[in-house]
Amino acid sequence: xxxxxxxxxxxxxxxxxxxxxxxxxxxxxxxxxxxxxxxxxxxxxxxxxxxxxxxxxxxxxxxxxxxxxxxxxxxxxxxxxxxxxxxxxxxxxxxxxxxxxxxxxxxxxxxxxxxxxxxxxxxxxxxxxxxxxxxxxxxxxxxxxxxxxxxxxxxxxxxxxxxxxxxxxxxxxxxxxxxxxxxxxxxxxxxxxxxxxxxxxxxxxxxxxxxxxxxxxxxxxxxxxxxxxxxxxxxxxxxxxxxxxxxxxxxxxxxxxxxxxxxxxxxxxxxxxxxxxxxxxxxxxxxxxxxxxxxxxxxxxxxxxxxxxxxxxxxxxxxxxxxxxxxxxxxxx
Length: 333
Prior knowledge:
Largest sheet: 10 strands, mixed
Low-confidence stretches: 184-205
Number of domains: 1
Structural class: alpha+beta
Mean pLDDT: 89
């Protein structure tokens, strides 16, 4: 079962285990400069509003009604990151336009470990973009379908799906019991890992948008330490997350869309923090398919559309490190 509560998708698997629950929300953020420099993690500036497709089906395209799911508003060239939370281990597949954001392969419902095409939570607290190389992603940036910017169009040559596709599988009951309920002296660092509220401190006339690769960011996608057989693939749930242009969101829902987030330059000049994340877990390598994608800024130049706006390079002066665990530091007295 999937529930939409407080602009957050909550996946529940009571038939597997009473504790088998995980949640996913979509965080508004700065679009980092698309200049091939490496940037740390930008902040979150609040959740995107999430709406039920079925509540507005008379105002939405037929394809959206067929897919069901939910939709969120995004401005053209706005960025997002996907936040994962929950203590019960789950395997999560994320695709954009049915292109897997971890492996670069086309969508399938099942999990694959060659190459690994999913993230494991709670070890993976978030995902900001396409997995282009070990330790680096290219930020998720919304662009209208049909203009050649999205990862889907660059890889398949078609602007067919758009949006974000998600499928979640819980850890098998017996595997969970073996790892977490039979071992009295289990490693509590894992069980007590916080669900980070990380970084919480010209538009198209068509509603469909997709995700394109933006700036280069330091972020690791972690290897599955449990193995693919740990996941209950008979009890998964999937959701299609449509992206609608913010200019049309109000006409569809009657709700005002969120304001545009600040630029990376304005945010940095205000002396506000960026973020780093520490973990000793093994990171996945990138994929050739995703590493060859052309970023939004480069694609605009290639198409003769000029320079990407609000794309000035920045030098983050304050970078806070997250993920240091629960150790209390003994400082000076």
